[in-house]
Design goal:
about 150 residues, mainly alpha, Helix Hairpins
């Protein structure tokens, strides 16, 4: 099976540009990154689907091809296009709502989230020592199932 180098380079370029845009804080750039990654995946599926050929319909031919094209790759690409358009519509709605609420398209840090992460970082510095009086061999309420008396 012959693999063409140009589609593979194009897939890598689209994926790397999409990941770079997806890591930005701007919602429009995030949307463009999602679309680029979606197109890269579609091109990857098309490349992995193999060479073209006759349509997968009985008694149909095209330009004297001897093999039949794989319909699974085409169906998966159509499904991926529909899903990526749904995701794009959702991200556009999020961007519109964010712009209407804050009049900024940039995603900022949430002050409450920052406060909670600082509290948890301060609590990680203090490691509590286990209570030696609590660790005994005597059975207590957490040692057995309710109603189980154990061996007497």
């Amino acid at each position: 099976m012959t693999t063409f180098l140009v589609p593979l380079i194009l897939i890598g370029g689209l994926t790397s540009a999409g990941v770079y845009l997806l890591l930005e804080r701007n919602l429009t750039r995030m949307l463009l990154g999602l679309l680029l990654i979606g197109n890269a995946v579609n091109l990857l599926i098309l490349t992995a689907g193999g060479p073209g050929g006759n349509p997968p319909i009985r008694d149909r031919g095209s330009n004297g091809a001897t093999t039949t094209a794989d319909p699974l790759a085409q169906g998966m690409i159509l499904t991926a296009i529909v899903i990526s358009m749904g995701i794009a519509a959702f991200v556009l709605a999020l961007a519109y709502r964010s712009y209407r609420l804050t009049t900024a398209e940039e995603v900022t840090n949430d002050p409450e989230d920052t406060r909670v992460s600082q509290l948890s970082a301060a609590e990680e510095d203090v490691i509590p020592l286990p209570d030696a009086s609590r660790d005994t061999d005597a059975p207590d309420e957490l040692d057995a199932l309710p109603g189980f008396e154990g061996s007497k």
